[in-house]
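Sharing a chain and its predicted structure for anyone who wants a worked example. Both blocks are below, sequence first, tokens second.
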Amino acid sequence: MARHRRTSDRARTARAVLAPIGLAAVSAVGASPLALAAPTAPAPSAVGQGDAVPCTDTADVCVDLSENKAWLADDGVATGDAMTITSGSPADPTPTGTTTVQRKERHHVSQENRDAPMPYSIFFDDEGRAFHSGDTAGTSHGCIHLEVEDARAVFAALDIGDEVQIRQ
């Protein structure tokens, strides 16, 4: 993924349009009640393709553990519908925060968990935790389980170095 623009098209257009108007006009526009009304982001459970995700705009994949949802994202916008996930148990939780994709293995087998298959593994930490296809009805040992079709899509979309954000 990693297609983030440092300066958005919207910001470039705004600068091009507002520059000839002058500073006084810009501050008058900024003071209008409509300019002060911030758009409201949808609740995480309602986020779908084209909606803002509940992570920063640098995330290539956004995970909301409280909602059991994940999204592929570009510039803070979901590039597809929400994916149902399961995560770690209270005894073996999924870590939160920002990290990057470290490696990918299409046919990984767990060394820590009785040779359990972990198809479409995308590792995001040094402890062996990964996004992968798995049972989305129960908890994991700290990994993010996805339905098989979603795991394939995430595996295809993410590259090593892409940003992973996991929030509670």
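Comments welcome. Residues 3-39 have pLDDT under 50 and may be disordered.
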